[in-house]
Specification:
It is built from four helices and 15 strands. By secondary structure, it is an alpha+beta fold. The strands form five sheets. Strands 1, 2, 4 and 5 form a four-stranded antiparallel beta sheet that branches. Strands 3-12-11 form a three-stranded antiparallel beta sheet, with no helix packed on it. A hairpin with a 6-residue loop joins strand 7 and strand 8. Helix 3 packs antiparallel against helix 4. The mean pLDDT is about 95.
């Protein structure tokens, strides 16, 4: 489960490239775009500009460069030419990239146009919860510390944490041990060691934590139809703490 320093350096390069994909998306006016248009732009940027590979494309039979999860979609939303992003939407783009044999994984929830105050608050608290989890990462800490930090922040703000999906180890493969739950009890679970690399990717719901999968076999939605938001980073356990391998330019760690 641990990576050598030279392997983490290569993963950091993949992470830096992936961060630049989100910088590219930040410049778009998403209103009126289809989620398939966004997918195609990301695919083209990764392949032709970054000379890398969209790692989700072909994974488990999935055909696209990203997942696009809008409003009540929790995760694994499939891009579509008929799904048009509207003023007031929130949408998560979950993107993976492979370079030099190593994969990086990250996601960001975007506010499309003028979004309601309640939707903005959900997105902000979800982002804060991600960083609460990241701040819990250090050698000697446990996986339960990460989950507890995330869930405590979500529940304090009146939200619930999706339990069916979690973060994961990552490296040459998209999904490696360990599983990183976004809920749990402190001082329980696997002890973190220098060189571990994994994702933290909380999915936070406005309402109940329960979810269901639609008939396409991919798209996961909230069971009560309320909004869901997600953010994700790939992180490495360092000698003294944590390195966020997918940190975006201008992004600052939240205390």
């Amino acid at each position: 489960m641990t990576k050598r320093p030279e392997e983490i350096a290569l993963m950091a390069e993949s992470g830096k490239l992936l961060a630049s994909v989100f910088t590219h998306l930040d410049q778009l006016n998403l209103i009126g775009m289809s989620t398939m248009q966004v997918n195609d732009l990301v695919d083209n940027f990764i392949v032709n500009e970054l000379k890398a590979r969209p790692a989700s494309k072909g994974q488990y039979g999935y055909a696209y460069a990203l997942n696009s999860s809008r409003n009540s979609v929790v995760c694994h939303g499939v891009p579509s030419v008929t799904e048009i992003l509207q003023d007031g939407d929130i949408v998560n783009f979950d993107i993976t990239l492979e370079k030099n044999g190593f994969i990086a994984d990250s996601s960001k929830t975007y506010l499309v146009g003028e979004v309601t105050a309640s939707a903005k608050r959900l997105v902000q608290v979800t982002y804060e919860a991600l960083w609460k989890g990241i701040k819990a990462v250090r050698p000697g800490a446990r996986l339960g510390d990460i989950g507890h930090a995330i869930e405590s922040h979500a529940r304090k703000n009146g939200y619930s944490v999706v339990r069916e999906y979690c973060g994961h180890g990552i490296g040459r493969e998209m999904h490696e041990p360990p599983e990183v739950l976004h809920w749990g009890r402190p001082r329980t679970g696997l002890i973190l060691k220098e060189g571990m690399v994994f994702t933290i990717e909380p999915m936070i719901n406005q309402g109940r934590h329960d979810v269901e999968t639609e008939d396409d076999g991919w798209t996961v939605v909230t069971i009560d139809g309320k909004l869901s938001a997600q953010f994700e980073h790939t992180v490495a356990v360092t000698k003294s703490g944590v390195q966020v391998l997918t940190l975006r330019p201008g992004e600052r760690a939240l205390a």
